[in-house]
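Progress against Task 2.4 (sequence-to-structure conversion) is shown through the following example record, which the project officer requested during the mid-term review.
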Amino acid sequence: MTTCGIWPTSRCLLAVVIDDDGRLAENPRKACYSDDARWALLNHIEAQHGLDCAFVVTRSFARMDPIAQLASRRGARVIVVADQFVHDLCVLIAPTAVSARQLALLLARLPICPIARPQLSVMQPELPLIATP
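Structure tokens generated for the chain above:
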């Protein structure tokens, strides 16, 4: 399964796509914090890697940034992982500072890691509220 880990930085979103074997499928891509840039990032990833590419984000990021909902509404699978689980992995793997690229790559690889699968859930798209007259 092709997956894309998305990690927020202070200036932009960083997306890392991996192939079925866990190898980088392309160089990491950046998108600024605008709806147009988010849409363009999703378009690029889906055009290059197909509509079956799953996006992996942390739970807090899924709540605070609209790209997860945009992807979900477009029909993409969005996999959510608890922030604490990612933090714990970072402490175990690299107790010193971890770069945004490494974090996005870690997220992308979680679905192919059997021990991480119980920590993952698929995000359901939010339905818009409809006001009735």
